[in-house]
Amino acid sequence: MFTPVDERNSISIDDARKVIKESVDKLTLKTENVKTSEAAHRVIAEDVTATNDFPTFRRSGVDGYAVIKSDFTDFPKQLKVVGNIPAGADFDRPIVSGEAVRIMTGGYVPDGADWVVMLETTKMINDDTVEISELQHKDNITPIGDYFKKGDMLLEKDTEINPGGISLLSAFDIQTVPVYKKPKVGIITTGSELLKPGEKIVNGKIFNSNGPLIKALCIENGAEVVSYTQIKDDSNLLKQAIEDLQGKTDIIITDGGVSVGDYDIIADLAKSADRLLFNKIQMRPGSVTTAFVDKGTIYFGLSGNPGACFTGFYLYVEYALRHLQKQTSRCIECLGTLNAEYTKTNDYDRILRGKYKITSDHIDVGRVGGDASGNLNNLQRATCFFEIPRGDSITPKGSVLRTWLLPFK
Ligand SMILES: Nc1nc2c(c(=O)[nH]1)N[C@H]1C(S)=C(S)[C@@H](COP(=O)(O)OP(=O)(O)OC[C@H]3O[C@@H](n4cnc5c(N)ncnc54)[C@H](O)[C@@H]3O)O[C@H]1N2
Ligand code: MOO
């Protein structure tokens, strides 16, 4: 006896994201200290402020001579060269009227000097005399604390550190930084048809391509993949795999088994969860994408069809992982202009895998590869998604469509 298929309540893409965000906002990541040099794309967990003024000494912005401005009542002017200050050197006394010190870019401007003239406007008369033909309109000296005063904000809590931030922290010799721990993710791919790498291909069987896709996307989005398993369509194996992950993850991502088939074990699991967020989204592919919360862990049940898995990850899991790390999605939402008519229609919005080109006045979007949910021929090449609105009319060339530009593409 077969049991009847469940009716599912469908929600929109935006409502799905809204409930994801509400659930993600209830989670908090612990913090840890990491080496500044290894902190790119980690998210800072506390404000970090300047430990000193920057620069810490008056610094020359040019190669030239440090002089006293009031010496220049007329031009050209000859001054006695009393020293040389390459970058990195100190100078042990103030200069006085009639003196000049040769100085290089980044050099310590000696006390007494209030102007640095550029080398190009000077001429050596002999070993210790320089003639200066003009003063530039500015002093070419960076004052102490010009860029940062001690206590100024360097990196605000919840900022994603980038190479510029690493440079900034290094300038203050801040060698370690407090960051949020990476979100811990467990990946469970389900499917009795899935082979392990190296196994022989036979009728009915396929290699697991979604597992490696999800893993790579998780890593790209700052997660730590604490577990990666592949199981057959067997609810006992699924229960075991989930039990093994108890307390070890913030998010569990499953793949396959979310539809209404006899072996759709994730769909059943979702029904018994503490809170079902959704199990039907008004989109194609991936309408059966499911999310639920159980024992404090957020679960995403991605569709097994590769195109739907890819789309579902970017629209929902990427969104969750980024928000968990206090960041917005890296998918840039914008409007794209369709470069060719699209004739298929659907009751749900169709999210197509496409390619975009930025022109002088718009973003051109178009299909790449097949649009079938099971077709993986465009996963490498797709650089964007664009939305064909639901309804029974064809979508003409030139239509302006909701578009997401994909990161790292
Ligand atoms: N009676 C209905 N059948 C289906 C419906 C429906 O509403 N009623 N929805 C269809 C749609 S749409 C989708 S999408 C799929 C969703 O299926 P599942 O998410 O449950 O996934 P599976 O059935 O396990 O697999 C679907 C497809 O993908 C292949 N697959 C699975 N895992 C992997 C993997 N790790 N790597 C590569 N490919 C994978 C699998 O072999 C199937 O071909 O359901 C439709 N059916
Ligand atoms: O919801 Mo499915 O991914 O369209 O084939």
TrEMBL record:
Record field: catalytic activity: adenylyl-molybdopterin + molybdate = Mo-molybdopterin + AMP + H(+)
InterPro entries found in the cross-reference section: MoaB/Mog-like_dom_sf (IPR036425), MoaB/Mog_dom (IPR001453), MoeA-like (IPR038987), MoeA_C_domain_IV_sf (IPR036688), MoeA_linker/N (IPR005110), MoeA_linker/N_sf (IPR036135)
Role noted for this protein: Catalyzes the insertion of molybdate into adenylated molybdopterin with the concomitant release of AMP.
Protein name: Molybdopterin molybdenumtransferase
Gene3D superfamilies on file: MoaB/Mog-like domain (3.40.980.10), MoeA, C-terminal, domain IV (2.40.340.10), Molybdopterin biosynthesis moea protein, domain 2 (3.90.105.10), Molybdopterin biosynthesis moea protein, domain 3 (2.170.190.11)
Superkingdom of this protein's organism: Bacteria
Pathway: Cofactor biosynthesis; molybdopterin biosynthesis
CDD domains for this protein: MoeA (cd00887)
A GO MF term: metal ion binding
E.C. code: 2.10.1.1
